[in-house]
């Protein structure tokens, strides 16, 4: 609490935020303003709702304080920024950002909100550090819904990779030490994001689809075609890191790709992972300012799973998916 206490100028919101955080950390069956207020001994949820919805404090500055806290304790020159999204199922149409859309959490199209999260991982640990709400075009183009949900007039449509880019650039500008970015196919399939990362001299290991087309010495080929043509000796058994049952071993291979037609130079690779039991393949577009070994790219790819662990921990332990906030400001707090 000492990290963010100065952001709450008046004694009452400072006390409220302490009680709110204590409620999030408590073993409550559900976590919302009602249950947290009861845990704090309040007569009703009004005080907690006021803290989240109406009290005067800057959530962006609080998130910056959290980022600095993470940097001080987990910061490492080889830090990895991880981008991923999570969906919260909702009923009705009034909660900001909600619509029927694909949710990776549910594995199908549902009525939900989608948030893009940024996590930081290093040899010292990992933590979520920032988040952005995805606002669909149906919301952007509806002035009445925007007004009812308190969406600021300056907010325009942004794709999920564009939101991820903003989060990454904010983290870099804030001094979070990092060398790499990792993400799934939603982010690996966006060439503008990759270009922006090269501009910042951030290496990346971004998942792509099997249909991803890459330039080779034999012309442009699909990723799965490249994998099919690799000789047996191209594959190496390497651990992607520790899992719940020990090391996560896969077969890995990579090929060097030609330079992209931009000023950033560096080294482009296509990284391929093969499940040692099923033979299932996964593909990653990679770039680094300096030449790095295969095991280093594998380690970055393996770090990506830590954001899934963070989602699981915050949902089961902190009620990340149990909030009842309908408006823009409350959601971001």
List the helices and strands and how they pair.
Blueprint: H1 11-25, H2 33-40, H3 46-53, H4 59-74, E1 80-89, E2 99-103, E3 108-122, E4 125-134, H5 137-140, H6 143-149, H7 160-173, E5 180-183, H8 185-188, H9 191-199, E6 203-208, E7 213-216, E8 219-222, H10 223-228, E9 236-243, E10 246-257, E11 267-274, E12 281-288, H11 294-303, H12 305-318, H13 328-332
Parallel strand pairs: 1-5, 5-6
Antiparallel strand pairs: 1-3, 2-3, 3-4, 6-12, 7-8, 9-10, 10-11, 11-12
Helix pairs in contact: 1-2, 2-3, 7-9
Tell me the number of strands.
12
Largest sheet: 10 strands, mixed
**Structural class, judged by helices and strands?**
alpha+beta
* Strand fraction: 25-35%
What is the CA-atom radius of gyration, in angstroms? 22 Å
- State the separation between the terminal residues, measured CA to CA: 15 Å
> Which H/E pattern describes the elements?
HHHHEEEEHHHEHHEEEHEEEEHHH
Helix amount: 25-40%
Which blocks of ≥5 consecutive residues have pLDDT under 50? none
Shape: elongated
Number of contiguous helices = 13
Q: What's the number of structural domains? A: 3
Mean pLDDT across all amino acids: 94
Concise summary:
This protein has 333 residues and is α+β, with helices and mostly antiparallel strands. The chain has helices spanning 11-25, 33-40, 46-53, 59-74, 137-140, 143-149, 160-173, 185-188, 191-199, 223-228, 294-303, 305-318, 328-332; strands at residues 80-89, 99-103, 108-122, 125-134, 180-183, 203-208, 213-216, 219-222, 236-243, 246-257, 267-274, 281-288. It is built from 13 helices and 12 strands.
């Amino acid at each position: 609490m000492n990290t963010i206490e100065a952001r709450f100028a008046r004694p009452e919101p400072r006390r409220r935020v302490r009680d709110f955080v204590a409620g999030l950390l408590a073993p409550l069956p559900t976590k919302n303003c009602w249950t947290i207020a009861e845990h704090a001994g309040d007569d009703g949820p009004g005080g907690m709702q006021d803290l989240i919805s109406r009290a005067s404090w800057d959530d962006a500055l609080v998130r910056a304080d959290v980022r600095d806290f993470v940097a001080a304790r987990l910061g490492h020159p080889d830090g990895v920024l991880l981008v991923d999204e999570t969906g919260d199922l909702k009923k009705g149409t009034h909660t900001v950002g909600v619509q029927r859309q694909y949710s990776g959490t549910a594995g199908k199209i549902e009525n939900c909100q989608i948030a893009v999260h940024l996590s930081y991982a290093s040899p010292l640990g990992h933590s979520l550090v920032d988040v952005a709400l995805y606002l669909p075009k149906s919301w952007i183009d509806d002035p009445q819904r925007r007004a009812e949900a308190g969406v600021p007039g300056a907010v325009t449509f942004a794709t999920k990779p564009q939101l991820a880019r903003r989060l990454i650039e904010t983290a870099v500008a804030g001094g979070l030490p990092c060398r790499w970015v990792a993400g799934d196919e939603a982010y690996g399939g966006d060439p503008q994001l990759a270009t922006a990362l090269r501009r910042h001299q951030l290496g990346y290991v971004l998942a792509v689809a099997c249909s991803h087309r890459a330039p080779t010495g034999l012309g442009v080929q699909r990723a799965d075609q490249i994998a099919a043509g690799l000789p047996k000796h191209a594959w190496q058994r390497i651990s992607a890191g520790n899992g719940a049952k020990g090391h996560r071993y896969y077969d890995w291979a990579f090929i060097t790709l030609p330079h992209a037609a931009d000023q950033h130079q560096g080294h482009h690779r296509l990284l391929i992972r093969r499940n040692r039991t099923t033979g299932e393949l996964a593909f990653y577009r990679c770039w680094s300012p300096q030449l790095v070994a295969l095991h280093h790219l594998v380690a970055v790819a393996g770090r990506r799973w830590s954001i899934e662990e963070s989602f699981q921990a915050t949902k089961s332990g902190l009620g990340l998916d149990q909030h009842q906030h309908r408006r823009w400001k409350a959601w971001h707090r």
